[in-house]
Amino acid sequence: MSRINGFVGRRNFLKLAGVGSVGIGAAAAGNILWNEEEAVAQKPASTTGKPPSVDPQTALKRLIEGNQRFVDGKRLNPNQSRLRLQETSFAQYPFAAILGCSDSRVPAEIVFDQGLGDLFVVRIAGNVASQEAIGSLEFGTAVLGAQLIVVLGHAKCGAVTAAIKDEPLPGRIGAFVEEIKPAVEVARSKSGNIEDNAIISNVQYQAQRLAESSAILRKLTREGKLKIVAGRYDLAVGKITLV
Ligand SMILES: [Zn+2]
Among 1.20.140.160, 3.40.1050.10, 3.30.1360.120, 3.40.50.2300, what is the CATH number of 3-242? Predict the structure, then answer.
């Protein structure tokens, strides 16, 4: 796949996505994100081009090692220099994507010890695979090239607790809580602490939704260019455990 200035061309993306040009193509016409000619024109001569892609296993290893550094209090704070700032201003090649909760205690770049341009992060309360989240992750993988998606939940998640309580909620808070309820039903059928079980069943459920409801993500997975995993973050220790 050719990638120009961090983005695949519109034609290539549509081919990869396996969708026709009516719809997305018409909507994208004139959009700089999909226009190869304009992207080339903006590419500075000093950039070295696309780095080697990071396969799913290597990406996962990189994240696990980064999280271990965070847990051990030995963060390297990589890719946060002024040079990295300059480099990433021209293009981005994130090696992994995260679907995480908006909770202020779980910032992806910090808990995985990564820097600018490393992670394509979608954060939404309850880390739910909403239509917008799925679309964002399709972009982060099919267009930007990330080969790993981590659905990251965490202990004491207020969104999951609200889904368990199942009480009326003001405004639009109920919208994302609704998307967690099928996972809560699975958790209710298990023995043990309902909240702990629901955190795990929710990340597994949202990961399954990503894998099953998106033709683009399914295709990438089938081709070995994408792996989707689920994880739970321990608020007190900082450790992420795959579940
Ligand atoms: Zn949460």
Answer: 3.40.1050.10
